[in-house]
Each structure stands twice: as structure tokens, then as C-alpha cells.
Write a structure and sequence with these properties.
Helix content: over 70%
Number of helices: 13
Order of helices and strands: HHHHHHHHHHHHH
Number of strands: 0
Structural class: mainly alpha
Number of domains: 1
Shape: globular
Distance between the termini: 19 Å
């Protein structure tokens, strides 16, 4: 049971949660550049297990049943591969562009929900998807003509592939959220993703230098805090009121990319991001006589 909160408070808390996730993306980009995306994620998820294990033991204290465990494993694998591709791509593209491209995931999730959950997709969703797709093309066209780091198109392709897998995890998450609470979901993701990454440890894992451990722990703490803040906000306000908050991440990504990495934001990236956001918001609008769909925050 949730407590009542002033109407502005969930919005403000959600904004802070998204800002923390943008900060985590910047931290993980720097860490991935230093020790590689695989090692950055391997050690971050292990740190996440250490952070969540006491909460899970004290607050949850249950072993998931077979159906719930299958959801945990399926979503964690999809999400784990997704974030690996995302950070591999983020090393090769500006932070703001990577975040903008990832905004396509909710619209892909709408299509997957129609395919696997038999949810009806209306004309607004189709129009929104087409608008967002044009936005993606605008960003890619601008990047292909820019003078910059080699491999940027490869990075953009990896982020788009990551968005497809993240959309799969969002669809699975709609069922998972009915079967488990946020602490169990967060612990399961970190634990199963750590096992997934750990399967390649004999060939790829490298023990980070001591200088990197504060950054690894900071990424785990910031990400955990973002999850908790968004979970608190979405428990106290309708998703349709808070979904727009997700797109403030582009503002933080632009500022952090400029401040931390000296990146500039292309005009085409701004235009493409505007089209993607417009398409998502158009698709998410309530249609007459139909309930608003539940939209999970990206951090879930």
C-alpha cells in the first residue's frame, strides 16, 4: 500500500531518478572506455548483487516459483545482452545520440506487445512508430555525414539492436511486475546478469585496477538509487503523467556529454530526438474509449 504524496512530488522524484540514470550512463561510458564494456558490466553487476543481497534476504525472503523464475531468467538475459550492446555502442557515439536512439525501445515494445500479448495497437501507435523511425533516420544521416570518431555507425547500430532487446525485456517486465516486487526484480537482474557475464569470465574478465573500483561502486549505487526513486514515483502517480519525464534524460545526456567527454550535439541529433519523443508521446496518448496502457520506466 502506498502513501499519498503532493502531486508535484512524484514528478520531481521521477526527474531526479532519470537524472541519476543519465549520470550512470556517463559513468559507465567512461568506465567502458577504460576497462571495456564487458568488464565494466561484469563488475558493476557483481557490485549490484552485493548491494541488493542484504535487502533481498531481509525484505523478500522467498524463493521464486518456477513461473516467476522463468520470467526473471528471460528478462535478465534479454536485458543483460541489451545493456552490453548499449554500452559497447555508447563508447563509439556521443552520449546524447545514444540516449536519443534508445528512446525507440518503448515503441518497439508496443509492437511486441501486440505480437506476443495480443494487445491491440491503434492508429496512433502506428503513426507514432513511423514518426520515431524517421527521427532515427535523421540521427543516423547526420552522424554518417559528421566528422568524428571511427565506428560511430557501428555504435549506433549496436544501440538500435540493444533497443530491440530492451523492448523485449519491457514486454516480459509487464508480466514480471505482477509476479515480483522491485527489490526481487532488481536482485534477480543483477544476479542472473552476473552469471551471464561470468560465463565468459575465463576468457574476457580482467580484475580492475584499484583506481577503478570507486567508479564501479558509484555506478552500482547511482543505478540502484535511480531504480528506487522511479519505483517510488511510479507507485504514487499514473504512468501517463510521468512517462514524459523519461525524455528529460536527453537533456542530462547532452550536458554530461559536453561536460565530461567534450562532445557536441549535432543539429540532426536534436531534430531526430524531437521526432522520436513526439512519436512516443503521440503513441502513448489515451484514445477515446480505451484505457491508457501501462508504460514502465526505462529503469525497470
Amino acid at each position: 500500500m502506498t502513501t499519498r504524496a503532493p502531486s508535484f512530488l512524484p514528478f520531481a522524484v521521477a526527474c531526479l531518478g532519470v537524472a541519476l540514470f543519465a549520470g550512470m550512463d556517463a559513468i559507465m561510458k567512461g568506465l567502458s572506455m577504460a576497462i571495456g564494456p564487458y568488464n565494466a558490466l561484469l563488475w558493476r553487476t557483481l557490485a549490484g548483487v552485493a548491494l541488493f543481497a542484504p535487502l533481498y534476504i531481509v525484505k523478500v525472503r522467498r524463493i521464486p516459483d518456477r513461473g516467476t523464475m522463468l520470467l526473471h531468467v528471460s528478462r535478465s538475459i534479454a536485458g543483460g545482452v541489451s545493456v552490453l550492446l548499449f554500452f559497447w555502442g555508447l563508447v563509439r557515439v556521443p552520449l546524447a545520440q545514444g540516449i536519443a536512439l534508445s528512446f525507440i525501445a518503448p515503441l518497439i515494445a508496443l509492437g511486441l506487445a501486440a505480437l506476443f500479448l495480443k494487445e491491440r495497437v491503434g492508429r496512433r501507435a502506428v503513426a507514432g512508430a513511423l514518426t520515431a523511425f524517421v527521427g532515427v533516420l535523421v540521427i543516423l544521416a547526420g552522424q554518417s555525414g559528421a566528422q568524428g570518431q571511427a565506428g560511430t555507425l557501428d555504435g549506433a547500430g549496436a544501440i538500435l539492436a540493444a533497443s530491440v532487446l530492451w523492448a523485449v525485456s519491457l514486454v516480459l517486465g509487464r508480466r514480471q511486475s505482477l509476479a515480483a516486487g522491485p527489490i526481487e526484480v532488481a536482485f534477480a537482474f543483477n544476479f542472473i546478469a552476473a552469471l551471464l557475464y561470468g560465463s565468459a569470465a575465463p576468457w574476457l574478465a580482467r580484475m580492475p585496477d584499484m583506481a577503478h573500483w570507486p567508479t564501479i561502486l558509484l555506478a552500482a549505487i547511482v543505478g540502484t538509487s535511480g531504480i528506487m526513486l522511479l519505483a517510488w514515483a511510479y507507485a504514487r502517480a499514473e504512468a501517463q503523467r510521468l512517462v514524459v519525464v523519461e525524455y528529460t534524460g536527453f537533456i542530462w545526456a547532452s550536458l554530461l556529454g559536453w561536460w565530461v567527454f567534450g562532445e557536441t550535439v549535432l543539429t540532426t541529433t536534436l531534430a531526430g530526438a524531437a521526432l522520436i519523443v513526439a512519436g512516443c508521446l503521440w503513441a502513448a496518448r489515451t484514445q477515446p474509449g480505451r484505457p491508457h496502457p501501462t508504460i514502465e520506466p526505462e529503469a525497470a
